[in-house]
Write a structure and sequence with these properties.
This protein has 316 residues and is α/β, with parallel strands linked by helices. It has nine helices and twelve strands. It has two domains: 204 residues, P-loop containing nucleotide triphosphate hydrolases (Rossmann fold, 3-Layer(aba) Sandwich); 71 residues, no CATH class. Helices cover 29% and strands 24% of the residues. Strand 11 and strand 12 form a beta hairpin. Helix 3 packs across helix 4 and helix 4 packs across helix 5. Bound molecules: adenosine-5'-triphosphate and magnesium ion (MG).
Length: 316
């Protein structure tokens, strides 16, 4: 049985200006220990998927359809109490987008890391200290950091604390939402390396969210490409990088500068659609260089083009 099975997930925001269909009929699954890279342009619904997986979509958002089964339990059907006690942090933990700026300024790092251990595991502060020291070492920090306050740490150090926090109850799945944005490229590379070590050592499943396809090339087993609220292509990393099928994926890959190849860097013209009024048919058609008549009328569904490699495009 897969660790995570998401089926036909729909998460909409009910705003005064209309219904924003941020996640619209999304399905995917994840095995234990597998790393999924979730990529797509700003506003395509990546964070909304992440919030949905914890069943904590901020209002006016709501999961309006589909199921999210983790370890055999459909979390869309659980009460808030059960979610808090059984699922969040323990089974699924999340590194929120921009979380390193959300550390509580009035508590030491030790206090913040001890909290989940005291609440969920009933450990004393003293018992927690040993676990925290070990974990800080694992994420590349000196244990003396424990006594410090967030403002005394660099951005990279804060992000490592946030990562430690996500690992502390040894969850089955860690979701990392843009964990390296706002960090300089050197620190960014260090953090990616840290995730690689975590993958090898803990064999945790991970969902790594980014707008930058090149960032996850080395750690993702599987890649899902999102466009305007939908997954338009999903497959193994080798398949998606080596044989990108969707014109949008091809465009994303062509916009990554390469050092050794003298290829022209291209970008995708146009902007993503307003998700309260998405175009009929394929949501990508207004920007697609291969657009055909059918694309304007009929929505393409995900088709398996080679084993394990799916694409939603009328070209196939
Ligand atoms: N609270 C909200 N109310 C209304 N619409 C929202 C809300 N939060 C997000 N949206 C809309 O839902 C869509 C998806 O947003 P989401 O934050 O999931 O995108 P994202 O892929 O994570 O983007 P980014 O890469 O910028 O983080 C966007 O069109 C956004 O405007
Ligand atoms: Mg986001």
């Amino acid at each position: 049985m897969a660790l995570l099975e998401v089926k036909n997930l729909k998460t909409y925001y009910y705003t005064l200006r209309g219904v924003v269909r941020a996640v619209d009929n999304v399905s995917f699954s994840l095995e234990r220990g597998e790393v999924l890279g979730l990529v797509g342009e700003s506003g395509c619904g990546k964070s909304t998927i992440a919030w949905s997986l914890l069943n904590m979509v901020p209002p006016p958002g709501r999961i309006t359809g589909g199921s999210i089964v983790i370890d055999g339990i459909d979390i869309t059907k659980l009460s808030e109490d059960d979610l808090r006690k059984k699922v969040r942090w323990k089974k699924i933990s999340m590194i929120f987008q921009g979380a390193m700026n959300a550390l509580n300024p009035v508590f030491t790092i030790e206090d913040q890391l001890a909290e989940p251990l005291m609440i969920h595991k009933g450990l004393s502060k003293k018992e927690s200290r040993e676990i925290i020291a070990k974990l800080l070492k694992m994420v590349g920090l000196d244990e003396t950091i424990m006594k410090r306050y967030p403002h005394e740490l660099s951005g990279g150090q804060k992000q490592r604390v946030i990562i430690a926090m996500a690992l502390i109850l040894n969850p089955d799945l860690v979701i990392a939402d843009e964990p390296t944005t706002a960090l300089d490229v050197i620190v960014q590379a260090q953090i990616i390396n840290l995730f690689k070590q975590i993958k090898q050592r803990y064999k945790m499943a991970m969902i790594f969210i980014t707008h930058d396809l090149s960032l996850i090339a080395e750690i993702a087993d599987k890649v899902a490409v999102m466009y305007a609220g939908k997954i338009v292509e999903i497959g193994s990393a080798d398949q998606v990088y080596g044989n990108p099928l969707h014109p949008y994926t091809q465009g994303l890959l062509a916009s990554i500068p390469r050092l050794r190849k003298r290829e022209e860097i291209r970008w995708i013209p146009g902007v993503p659609p307003d998700l309260s009024r998405p175009p009929p048919g394929c949501r990508f058609f207004p920007r697609c260089q291969y657009v055909m008549d059918v694309c304007r009328k009929e929505e393409p569904v995900l088709k398996e083009v080679e084993p394990g490699h799916y694409v939603a495009c009328h070209l196939y």
